[in-house]
Design a protein that fits this description.
By secondary structure, the protein is mainly β. 7% of the residues lie in helices and 50% in strands. The chain has 9 helices and 51 strands.
């Protein structure tokens, strides 16, 4: 009896122990194809115990012996499974309701689908957008795929002809940060100073990265300085490189403009220029990609290569007098209205190597690109300006042509650009669950100018090729990041901390003496078209900054996400700055989310803006003269009263929604307001009306001077809309994509330096109405896109529409052609007149056929209806050879002026 009672008491005592006994479970989370699911959440039901799967999908957790596990991951159905024998394999099914593009930009925790992010992110799969189009460069491809991404193809604009600087939300090119695999990409050494919207800005040359190396592009359309540092005021573009192995892919294509009304070409068989009826701007592209597996732990190295060659185009305007000599319109001899030629080649690699039996991964990526190009400078009329040009040029046939008794010639500006990058790092897990990442990223851009088929008038016509010098920019970034996911805090918390050190170096190197010297003061100075950089321009400037940052993302509930970030930086040249960001997203229903953010931002004035120095030739109303761009610290800058450059500061706010009313439909709508104080821009042009400048201008033998200054405070208001419908059934597919951006920019204040008096002339010199019009025209006020694609069997057909809204800018013209809007002085010839470019719709069509499993052919036409911009002037104005900013019939507007473009492409895979 006593023994039975003892057993009963022991059973009562030990039963809770048995009930709460813990076991250690190992397992793997995978999809239906057996592929690992990273960052899947594994929670014990009715408990706070949780963990995440690692990069191989593996997990380990201690739970009760008969526990139920709740397993979930973005894009997959949540499931509950009973604990079984270790190791377990848990398979998750895709969730068509919540499955979206997986994005990593904007977070240092686990990635999220694009509809679940607290700020708008576009995810663009390169293979789906680069083939069904005549566009063959990354910048123009993205321009048609993202609502607020914009760029302008320049013409007759010195180095801007070869660098296509892109913008977001109507801001400057240097107010968007570019990342590659999440690491900061270096900017180009180039500074846009003439004939371009982004004047006064540098930026990143996206086309220097081989298109064939890119898997997808993530475009974060929100201020992110608190997360990534300087330049991220408008947003972030993150290029994710390919990781494919075992497949060789080859994409090649040809395109050319067929503009029977407007192009001008040289007919060799006739020895003369002809108007219309030929294909020009012929382009050829070749891209390859192949990857190899490394080791036995999913390591890889992926190689890519690109080659691209694009010929010149020549464009004039039909709304002008078409009387001709030798087939060339007499009053449109400006041949530089068109694209310059480009030949480029690049290589890229991407590598990851996991270390066996550890959670450590060594990674590296990088590459190089070489670009050679030439473009026409302004056409010179030798007959009109005999005092500037030697008679000897008439004896050199490569320099001149005679039309209707007038002698013209076209200097050529050549550039050779080298771009190199290298990144290496190691990441792993410290302790139980702290993820760490240490990396170093190095990039360098070198930009070298040459003058060809031109001459130094003061030297004579014998020498026709010049080394004009150039500039380079180097950036090295060391970054350390530490993050930890804590799944049992609320519905999940991620913490991240980091340190960063960045070093930058900017150099200007002089050209040969004949490119800039004056040997006869009665003649023009330096090589015509692009005088070389002088020894007085040379600079070797460096700076460094250190940063510390922290951010947290909390899933307060299954519906409510909160994000906070703070960053502090210290620059050795202008000092300390700190910034913050708060973002949130709330699920009103399972398929409807509201989201918003508020943040401060900054952009340090670039080394290029602080140190750039150059003397260039400008043309206004037919007058040719030299202008000096002086660095911020020079005596001439101080004499003009321009203060030292300081950082730009911004306040960003956004509010939006994401909605998935059906599995096939995604809708996002996001409004934004961006106020930027003290924007760094290139000033207007100062002359000897400021007495202090007169002796310095005379000493430099120039007529005017320009400076970089924190000249304006602006506010951008805008709205982005994206509607995506994708439906697949049987062997058919339908895709409809609508994108829209509505953008408006206000200039709130012009920061006229106290050293300048308040006269209208000084205000116009500092930042004229003309410069204000250009900053407002950085992007069209409306940009709408509609892509319609239909696939059936082996065929795919589609049409893409892009509408660009009206913009107005101010240009130099003649007083007797139209009442001037603004008179700069008492001259009867130099005035400002308005250019109006009405809204235009461009239509692209394409078709593709899958010949075999390994070969697909694409064909079609961009701008199939051959739409051109309006002739710029308001009615009543007449055309001058130097009217537009590019000196021709049109300015560089969003849609371009080259007309219809035909193409065919082939895609191979082996």
């Amino acid at each position: 009896m006593n023994k039975r009672l003892l057993y009963i008491l022991l059973g009562i005592f030990l039963s809770p122990v048995a009930l709460f006994a813990q076991i250690s479970i190992k397992g793997k989370v995978a999809n239906s194809n057996g592929e690992a699911i990273i960052a899947a959440s594994i929670k014990e039901k009715n408990s706070n115990k949780a963990t995440l799967s690692d990069q191989n999908g593996d997990f380990k957790i201690s739970v009760a012996e008969k526990a139920i596990l709740i397993v979930s991951a973005i894009g997959y159905e949540k499931t509950e499974v009973a604990v079984t024998t270790s190791p377990m394999t848990i398979t998750l099914a895709e969730n068509t309701q919540n499955l979206g593009d997986f994005v990593v930009v904007g977070t240092r925790g686990k990635g999220r689908s694009s509809i679940l992010t607290p700020v708008p992110v576009d995810v663009i799969k390169i293979n789906s957008v680069n083939l069904p189009t005549a566009k063959m460069d990354l910048t123009s491809i993205l321009n048609s795929a993202s609502p607020s991404f914009n760029f302008n193809k320049q013409s007759g604009s010195d180095g801007a002809d070869q660098i296509d600087l892109a913008t977001l939300r109507g801001l400057g090119p240097d107010q968007t940060l570019v990342l590659v695999n999440g690491k900061r990409r270096h900017q180009t050494a180039f500074v846009a100073v003439f004939g371009t919207r982004g004047r006064g800005n540098s930026g990143t040359d996206l086309n220097a990265i081989p298109e064939s190396s890119i898997d997808r592009v993530e475009i974060l359309r929100d201020g992110a300085s608190a997360q990534y540092g300087s330049d991220a005021i408008a947003g972030v573009i993150n290029l994710i490189l390919k990781k494919d192995v075992g497949v060789l892919s080859v994409n090649t294509g040809y395109s050319g403009y067929y503009d029977p009304r407007n192009n001008t070409y040289y007919a060799k068989e006739l020895g003369q220029y002809r108007h219309g009826g030929a294909i020009d701007g012929n382009a050829f592209s070749l891209g390859t990609n192949y990857g190899l597996a490394l080791g036995k732990n999913n390591g890889f190295i992926n190689f890519s290569g690109n080659f691209f060659a694009n010929g010149k185009t020549f464009r004039q305007n039909l709304n002008t007098d078409l009387s001709t000599k030798d087939g060339l319109p007499i009053n449109t001899v400006r041949r530089s209205t068109g694209d310059g030629s480009v030949t480029s080649g690049g290589l890229m690699y991407n590598m990851e190597l996991p270390i066996a039996n550890t959670k450590t991964v060594i990674y590296s990526f990088g590459g190089g690109n070489i670009k050679a190009s030439d473009a026409y400078a302004y056409t010179r009329n030798l007959s009109e300006r005999p005092e500037r040009f030697p008679n000897g040029v008439a004896g050199n046939p490569i320099l001149q042509s005679t039309i209707d008794g007038e002698t013209y010639y076209d200097p050529i500006i050549q550039t050779k650009i080298q771009d190199l990058s290298f990144a290496a790092g190691v990441r792993g897990v410290w302790g139980k669950d702290w993820n760490w990442d240490l990396s170093n990223t190095l990039g360098r851009n070198n930009f070298h100018f040459y003058g060809d088929q031109t001459f130094n008038a003061s030297l004579g016509a014998g020498k026709t090729h010049f080394d004009d010098g150039g500039f380079s920019f180097l950036q090295n970034t060391v970054n350390f990041n530490l993050s930890k996911a804590i799944p049992d805090v609320a519905s999940g918390l991620n913490l991240a901390f980091g340190l960063e050190h960045r070093y930058e170096n900017y150099k200007i190197y002089a050209g040969e003496k004949d490119s800039y010297a004056n040997y006869d003061l009665n003649k023009a100075t330096g090589a015509q078209g692009f005088p070389g950089y002088q020894p007085s321009d040379e600079v070797n400037a460096s700076r460094s900054n250190v940063a510390a940052y922290a951010d947290a993302e909390l899933d307060a509930t299954d519906r409510w996400l909160l994000g906070v970030a703070i960053r502090a930086e210290n620059y050795n040249d202008f000092g300390f700055t700190s910034n913050y960001k708060f973002a949130t997203r709330y699920k009103l229903t399972s398929n409807f989310n509201v989201r918003g953010s508020i943040s401060t931002g900054f952009r340090a004035p670039s080394l290029q803006q602080i140190n750039f120095s150059n003397t260039f030739t400008n043309v206004q109303g037919g007058n040719v003269f030299e202008v000096k761009i002086a660095p911020n610290y020079s005596p001439i800058t101080k004499a003009a009263g321009i203060p030292e450059l300081k950082q730009e500061r911004s306040l960003n706010a956004s509010l939006g929604l994401s909605w998935k009313p059906a599995p096939e439909v995604t809708i996002t709508l996001d409004g934004y307001r961006i106020k930027i104080k003290d924007r760094v821009v290139l000033s207007g042009q100062f002359d000897d009306n400021i007495p202090a400048l007169n002796p310095i201008l005379n000493q430099l033998n120039v007529s005017q001077a320009q400076f970089f200054a924190n000249a304006v405070t602006t506010t951008n208001y805008g709205l982005d809309l994206v509607v995506d419908y994708t439906k697949r059934f049987d062997n058919k597919s339908i895709k409809v994509l609508f994108t829209g951006n509505f953008n408006h920019l206000n200039i709130n204040k012009i920061n006229i330096p106290s050293a300048l008096d308040g006269s209208y002339e000084n205000q116009q010199s500092f930042f004229s109405d003309r410069e204000q019009a250009y900053i407002k025209a950085s992007a069209p006020p409306v940009k709408l896109g509609l892509n319609l694609d239909y696939g059936f069997g082996n065929w795919m057909v589609g049409t893409h529409f892009l509408y660009y809204g009206k913009i107005s800018i101010l240009g130099y013209g003649y007083a007797n052609t139209y009442p001037p809007l603004v008179e700069l002085d008492n001259s009867t010839t130099t005035v400002l007149e308005q250019f109006n470019y009405s809204g235009k719709m461009v239509t692209d069509i394409y078709g593709s056929y899958k010949i075999s499993k390994r070969l697909t052919v694409f064909f079609g036409a961009d701008n199939v209806f051959n739409i051109h911009p309006d002739y710029g002037y308001v009615p009543g104005a007449k055309l001058s050879a130097y009217d537009g900013e590019t000196g021709g019939a049109w300015d560089a507007v969003q849609m371009g002026f080259n007309g219809r473009k035909l193409f065919t492409k082939l895609a191979f895979s082996f």
